Amino acid sequence: MTFPLPARRLVLSLLTGLALIAAANSVLAVDVFDLAPDRPDLIRTARNPAAIAKIPAGYAFANPGFFTIANTASGGPPLSTYANDAKTVVGADPDIARLIADALGLELKTVVVAWADWPLGLTSGKYDAVISNVGVTEERKEKFDFSTYRQGLHGFFTLKDRGIERIAEPKDIAGLRIIVGAGTNQERILLDWDRLNREAGLAPVELQYFDDEATRLIALRSGRADVIVQPHAQLVYIAARDGDIRRVGTLSAGWPERSDVAVTTRRGSGLAEAVTEALNGAIADGSYARVLERWQLTEEALPESQTNPPGLPKY
Description:
Layout: H1 5-29, H2 49-53, E1 66-71, E2 81-82, E3 89-90, H3 92-103, E4 107-112, H4 118-123, E5 129-130, E6 144-151, E7 153-159, E8 177-179, H5 185-199, E9 206-208, H6 213-221, E10 227-231, H7 232-242, E11 245-252, E12 260-266, H8 271-285, H9 287-294
Parallel strand pairs: 1-4, 1-5, 8-9, 8-10
Antiparallel strand pairs: 2-3, 6-12, 7-10, 7-11
């Protein structure tokens, strides 16, 4: 039976709605990570005398006795989200913050802020650092200091049965249909890769854009697209939650260079060197690796923390 056009549109709308409801239910039904606010197995590290010695003389912490950090609580698991008590912030970033506080001999205090508000709050001294998936950029380095703690990665993920095995360089995306966010760094890099492929006589890539995550996943699962590209941590969570997609590659946010995520402190405050020392102590004793393993982010591990390394250039 052939339905008139308005009826076909209604059926398509209903099917899309049902798919969105199913996707939402899968999020609610599956607890991939432990989001309890008071986990008994928190990963800790010991006081680090070398890190404490690098705290500048006379440095005034925002709250005496505490390492006060800002976090947006909006990165989503596994980076940062609210625990199931709807008020405690949990995730890889809060766990990294706790390691730094331990190493500096301080208690951790987390202040939840909007992304747009953290620069002013940091420069005004409302908190000592921002630990909320902040990438190092040359522009930000004009106002802030950085201590790196994760690689800034984007992930290439596809359906488990799609037959795509590896994406590591421009030629690997030739002819593929890839979902990417408009105006993102991922899009900029993929357009560069596509230009290189076209110059080499390879098939062009087809970039697809959707407004929300549920629609992107529907497009991937329905066969409209071959690959989805997003920040790696977001896709790690989706893959663990849903079980039907897998990673086939990663891409540095700073391609062709590496771009890292860092603890952000006030420029010239001197605290960055102490934070970098604290992170390197946690790397050395294994607590850093255990945090990333807990949140399935081992792929993003750094061999060492660095203070103010090269960041993304101004475009």
